[in-house]
Amino acid sequence: MKIDESLMLNQQSQSRQTNNDDLGRDAFLQILMTQLTNQDPLDPMDDKDFIAQMATFSQLEQMTNMANDFTGFMENQSYSNFLQYSNLIGQAVNYGEFSDGELEEELSAVVQSVRKEGDGIIISLDNGEEISAEEVTQIGQVDANDEGDSNE
To answer: How does DSSP classify residue 6?
Structure first.
């Protein structure tokens, strides 16, 4: 039986590289087709082996789709959190000032703006400070009397 030299690994070009180290759907199909094309006609692949390989391909396809869907879900969830925090604009928030892991003082300020930075949400306050959204301990309405007194 003659072996086609173009199928040897050292003869194949390395130009077709993927951006990750995992075998993808196309590579799996290519391997399967090569295996089916080059099988011995007198000793064909067992049907159980073929079904097992197709089941593996089906699982690979489902995992790929699920990973893509999950990535999209995480992006949407992050954006949804950002939009929820934007409702804090104009609201008074309490937050703690910590030193060496201990609460030094609980402060209060009015939220001026909210921005997304990486995976976190940063809240800009009217006192010039910027805090992480996780630092907020209480949310309330701005008292018009207190706001007027602080400006005098």
So the answer is: G
